[in-house]
Specification:
3 helices; globular; about 100 residues; alpha+beta
Length: about 100
């Protein structure tokens, strides 16, 4: 499993071009956006000891984290675009991800 979404308006993979596109959309954002928050969280996701992947739910409103045991955990995305400071932080995170992406 990976952090790839292939259905709906939030479809994206985490390749370098997608990260660059997301970065530009975050830079252009003037206010909070749950859709952008979800894309950012998916782009930043790294499998850990509990979760193997993340995707948007069917409605495109929450994130579904798939666990190693086959179960799922559903959560709201973090507030990466809530205000100017959070958007600046998201830009820094995505810039680092883009620069360090193969």
């Amino acid at each position: 499993m990976s952090n790839t979404r292939t259905k709906g308006p939030l479809a994206m993979t985490t390749d370098r071009d997608d990260i660059a596109s997301l970065l530009e959309r975050v830079k252009a954002a003037k206010g909070g956006s749950n859709a952008l928050d979800m894309e950012i969280e998916i782009a930043l996701f790294k499998p850990d000891g509990l979760h193997t992947s993340v995707r948007a739910n069917a409605a495109g409103t929450k994130l579904v984290y798939e666990r190693k045991d086959g179960g799922t955990d559903t959560h709201w995305a973090g507030d990466y675009t809530l205000n100017a400071a959070s958007r600046e932080h998201a830009v820094a995170l995505l810039t680092s991800l883009k620069e360090n992406h193969p």
